[in-house]
Each structure stands twice: as structure tokens, then as C-alpha cells.
Amino acid sequence: MDAIALYDQTTLECSRLITQRYSTSFTLGIKTLDRKLHLPIYAIYGFVRYADEIVDTFHNQDKQALLERFKKDTYESIKAGISLNPVLHAFQLIVNKYKIDLDLIEAFLHSMEMDLDFKSYNDSKYHEYIYGSAEVVGLMCLKVFCEGDVAMYEKLKDPACKLGAAFQKVNFLRDIKSDFEERGRVYFPGVDFNQFNQCVKKRIEDNIQKDFNDSLIGIEQLPKSAKLGVKVAYLYYQKLFDKIKGLPAEKITQTRIRIPNSQKISLLVGTYFESKLGLT
């Protein structure tokens, strides 16, 4: 392996380490994809994870300045084809190899900027945020899954957006307590955290379930290399969502819903074999 190939591989493995440290479920989900897709998806996760950390974690820093620097460095790395930041170098490798559209990256970074300013969202800003924070991440992954097949990408764009939206909305519902208490945010438009009740919860759940239903047709048409992994992620989130649906509204506002790592592993392994055996 020559020196630049070694550097490329090392930065991609850095993104894998980041994914492993931050998300047990996402790491396990990636492992159900074809091996050739592992490092590209780790690189995308590493990028979005670190951008999210800027706005959600670095409370004693100038978040706006950090995000602006991260954004500038991102575009410079993509243009130059190199970065001394291992996360950005790994990401630019994948952006350039799979021709990920810059407007997807711009939309994502814009949603991160929204997190610095917005505490509540109307319908327009909510959909804008969902698109940038979740749907475009699904589209970045879809670029990798389609491996240059433009017609397939165009056909599967809408279902990929629906799946990304469903995942994000489940996260919002799961994290509604911590988002409000720690960051002062309520993402669902027109929802008052202090007036959150079963009727409001049911309305949100119906919207999420529709996104899940609309995404399924796209999952079934994915390439074999990606189909099982995405299906496992779909089933995992659907089961997490089912757990949330089974809880009363007051429970959601009092406790962040968690699934222990042991249960995550059991759930992911179970859905993997169910899918393999054609039971789901």
C-alpha cells in the first residue's frame, strides 16, 4: 500500500471508530450491508456525527464560529481532494468517488445552523429541517448504494427521503424530553411540551407511520448489496417506534426512551435472521 492509500484507509477507519463509539445500533446495522459499502457509510456517518456534535455538545465554545469553520473546511477538502482533518478527508473521498451532490451537503449544514437559532418550528421550518438533517443523509447513502446508477437513484429518491424522515421523527419523539430540557427545543410544529398529551402523540405517530409505509417500496428495490442492511435498519426503527407507541404520553415527557445495548444487539440480530429467512 502506497503512502496516500495508507492515509486514505486510516482516515476511513477513523470514521469507523467514530461510528462505533457513538452508535451501537448504527454500527451493527452497517455490518449487515455488503462489506464494500461499510467504509463509505462510516465516512458519511462520521461527517454528520461531528457536525451534530458542534451544535449539541460544545456548549462552552463559539458554536457558530466552529460550524462556519467546519463548513469552510468541508468544501475546501472536497475541492482539493484532501484534508488534514481525518473525518473530512474520509468524507471527501466518498463525496468525490460517488459524486454526492453539493446541494445535499449544503442542506445538511444549513439544518445544523438552524439548531443554533431555532427553539420551535412551524410547518415550513420543520420540513426544511427534516429534509436537511435526515432526508439528505439518506440520499447521500443512496448515492453509495446505487454506485453510479443514476436511473436507480432517481427512482429511489422519494422513498429514501421518507425513510430518513421516519428515522428522524422517531428520534424526535424518543428525545422530546432531553431536547426540551437540555436545549429548549421542540421540533414538532405547534406542539407545546407542557401540553403534550395522548392526542398530540397519536397525531405525530400517524405521520411517522405513513413515512415508514411509504419508504418500504423503495427498500424492496434496492441493490442486493444494500437491501438487507437497510431493511434491518427499517425493522429496528419500526420496533423502537412500536415500543414508543405503546407508552403513554406522560411517560415520553418524563423519561428518555432507551433500549439497552444488549437489547439492541438482540433486536438487530433477530431482525437480520428474520429478513434472511423471509419472515418479514
From TrEMBL:
It comes from the Bacteria. Keywords: Transferase. It holds the Pfam family SQS_PSY. GO terms for biological process: carotenoid biosynthetic process. SUPFAM superfamilies: Terpenoid synthases. InterPro entries: Isoprenoid_synthase_dom_sf, Squ/phyt_synthse, Squalene/phytoene_synthase_CS, Trans_IPPS_bact-type, Trans_IPPS_HH. One of its GO terms (molecular function) is squalene synthase [NAD(P)H] activity. CDD domains: Trans_IPPS_HH. This is Phytoene/squalene synthetase. It comes from Algoriphagus alkaliphilus.
